[in-house]
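Note to self: user wants both folds in one dump. Writing first protein now.
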Amino acid sequence: MKRFLLAVALMGSLSTFAQTQSDLLKHYEDFYYQMRMQGDVDGIINALTHLHVLAPSQARLDTLAYIYADDNRHMQALNTIGIEKKATDSDLAVQVKAISLKAINQPKRALEHFEVLYQRNPNAYLAYELADLKIQTGDNTGALTNIEYGIANAKDDMKYAFYERQQPYEVPLKAAFLHLKGLVQFNTDKENIDAAVAFMDEALAIEPNFNLAGLSKQALLSRKEKAAEENKEE
């Protein structure tokens, strides 16, 4: 009799637990949708974290990491899904790893994830990211390959955002690629500054308010003037 009562009690507790977990899932699902409607990022993160604990899901974890990254909380994003390159990663997970590693100044690690994205879906925007990171890591030949692809595939309505000024601004993607091409030209032949400046001029012809290209041109011309002065002194 005691065993029967114990079994009944156990079944009852399991039923209650299942019902409680189901109720909690429903609660946090409703909470998640409400936070999305209100645009409350912290609320969304809270809801997704609870939902993942109650019912673990890689898709939910990827979404949570994306929300962290989109809110510029890149370390939290990476702590959520890791930094390892995995063949099973979703496109969203790879994107988060690439963007967040770039944001925390890990260009070599970011590069391998951008390469995966590019292999899955080659496009001009990803080509720009690859070229930029390859310049940073010293692969000028690889960067030039991505730049040429980007210039050939950049449409007139494609824009790229820059943040070196207090006020962010956008320029045509083709102009952004020409700026990178000028950097590659200088990196591969530092004596031929005029060739690098010519690419900056092309970029500025497309977008006269391209601040970064203007700064790069100014730096190149200053270097040329300094070299000329040093030659005179000799």
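First done. Writing the second protein, which came from a different request thread.
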Amino acid sequence: MPPTAPPTHDELVATAGKLIPLLRSRSLWIDEHRRLPPDVIEAIEESGLLKMQIPVQYGGYESDARTFIDVLSEIGRGNSSAAFCLSVYASLTWMTGMWPDEALDEVFADPHVRVSGTTAATGRATRTDGGYLLNGSWRFNSGVLHSQWKINVAIPEGESEPPVPLFCLVPVSDLRIEDDWHTIGLSGSGSVTTVAENVFVPQHRVITGADFYQNLSKSHANSAKPAYRVPVLVTTTAIQIGQLLGAARYALSSFLERLPGRPLTYTDYPSQREAPLTHLQVGEAALLIEDAENRAHRFADLLDRKIERDEPWTQDERVNSRVQIGWIAQQCKKAVDIIASASGGSSIHQDVPITRIQRDVHAASLHAMITPGVNVELYGRSLCGLEPNTVYL
């Protein structure tokens, strides 16, 4: 029997949209408990969205960038913490395709697998028979509370000068969780600290940072695919964008839903809907969101086009990919701030979404790879003819 064709862009976006009512209804629980609830995890599994970045040889879809941006935008219209976790699962699942096929057979044995992790080299790896012993702690592990596997990065001890970091695939069950995620934004992402204490990692689940960042996939099946020759941080940038767009769209739509019949207190306007100030605020916020979406789609189309042609990425193009997410984050954040300032005193109630959306967008904008100021400075350096001040391109 021939393999089933993966769902189309429109089908996946529609599937994501069906999750919005559940995500919104569980938002207060998500923030209070600092994680996603079981019914949300079950619904996400049943939706098939976790397969979007799983390799096709394991039943995945290998969805294109525009599809992923639009799907995550829909999830972001439901709940930012859920969207953030899904963006992490997609990014790290795609990264896992860099490992040898023996490791992939283990990871993708579960059709609903969720991979989390960070690329911060805050651990140590000591060579032993057949692999490495891993020790250390890693912070900001978004989604790890619901993950089966995790990518940990460690510095090998006594092997080279300067040492090349090692990227290790580890079952989450081998790690200790430190429940230290108490935040005012993206509370439900459960981005807790994980600790490894003499965890054995077999050699086939270890690749070097040099191979990782140069896109030298150790998988025989994946190394032939143009999508696995895209720089890691370009792909993950595209995957992360959608959550920001969705949050901004949710902020605007929820404001407009509350608008009819609301007075503009201490003014002569019987309705906020009639006030010119409201028109200016709504108009500016909508334009910012539209511009951000258009920029996101242009970037996604460029990425998909280069994959189709199997074209290499220049340094300038890598720099440009970093500034895309930074500028989109700034536009979305500004739009949400405008809407929040227009929402009035009643918006501070917990059951009104805007303050939660605002906190979540601010938190996402502080991510080291998203921060607008850092990325815009990097772009400006490039325009001035200077070399990048980072290797994370």
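Dump finished. Worth passing along: Strands lie at 115-128, 131-141, 149-156, 166-171, 176-178, 192-202, 206-208.
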